[in-house]
UniProtKB/TrEMBL annotation:
Domain Sodium symporter small subunit: 9-84
Pfam family, any one: DUF4212
Keyword terms: Membrane, Transmembrane, Transmembrane helix
This protein's name: Putative solute:sodium symporter small subunit
Amino acid sequence: MSDKDSAMAYWKANIRLIFISLIIWALVSFGFGILLRPLLAGISVGGTDLGFWFAQQGSILVFLGLIFFYAWRMNRLDRKFGVDEE
């Protein structure tokens, strides 16, 4: 594999990871917190309904989880393509 092909595969994998992370973030924050809130209203979490919880706390926690997931996956991707910092 040439350097150009390797760089293209690296960026393609990177963009795919970013796209998947953004879809998950949008689904949780916009989908669960706003669009699906009436459907989640009957489920109680911590004294409030699940839709409100996702809008106030859940989307933030999922976003933080996505940051750590992205860093972990990018470290693996960097090692795979030989562009890691170590």
